[in-house]
Amino acid sequence: MNDEVLAVVNASTPRRYLGVGMLAVVGGIVLYVAFAAPPSAAWFAFLLVVGVAALYVAARMWQATEHRIELTTEELRCSNGTVIARVEDLEAVDRGFFAFKPSNGFLLKTGVSQSRAWMPGLWWRMGRRIGIGGVTPGSQSKAMAEIIAALLVQSGKVR
């Protein structure tokens, strides 16, 4: 097993603080509006759920962005040990302008449907699609996408 890391994508510190801070501020403002002047009980419940959800996602993003994504010749993995996808299962890389992809990132399509997973600000996986990016620098994501595209060409899956 070749464990040499070909590319790494991780959240830069300023982007991490900005992303988590914006979510926390939105959650705080929504909760403030909910408690300060709720128009009705239904709106109060809605605002409460949205505010708590925003704070929850901010906390999850803080935890998730401590990790990084590593690409080896055999797998795409998170630094916490989670295998995001095996390189042999990858079929396509989509970096297009209109692709449903994370900010500063790219979309991968696999031949195998996998379980859903989400590390806010870093990557997500739904079925056969994997989104890499979020609060990550575009230069790192672009380099990783190019290396994956080269691996796909090398394996004969893409021309």
List keywords for this structure.
alpha+beta, PH-domain like, four-stranded antiparallel sheet, three-stranded antiparallel sheet, 42% helix, elongated
What can be said about this structure in brief?
It is built from three helices and seven strands.
Order of helices and strands: EHHEEEEEEH
Name of the CATH class of the largest domain: Mainly Beta
Helix segment tally: 3
Going by helix content, strand content and strand pairing, the class is: alpha+beta
Oligomeric state of the chains? single chain
Strand count: 7
Major sheet size, sense and barrel closure: 4 strands, antiparallel
Q: In order across it, which strands form the biggest sheet?
A: 1-2-3-4
Task: Catalogue the unreliable spans.
Answer: none
* CATH architectural designation of the largest domain: Roll
CATH topology of the largest domain: PH-domain like
Mean pLDDT: 89
Q: Return the domain count.
A: 2
Helical proportion?
Answer: 40-55%
- The 3D shape can be described as elongated
Rounded to the nearest angstrom, the distance between the terminal CA atoms is 26 Å
Evaluate the radius of gyration. 18 Å
Give the strand content. Answer: 25-35%
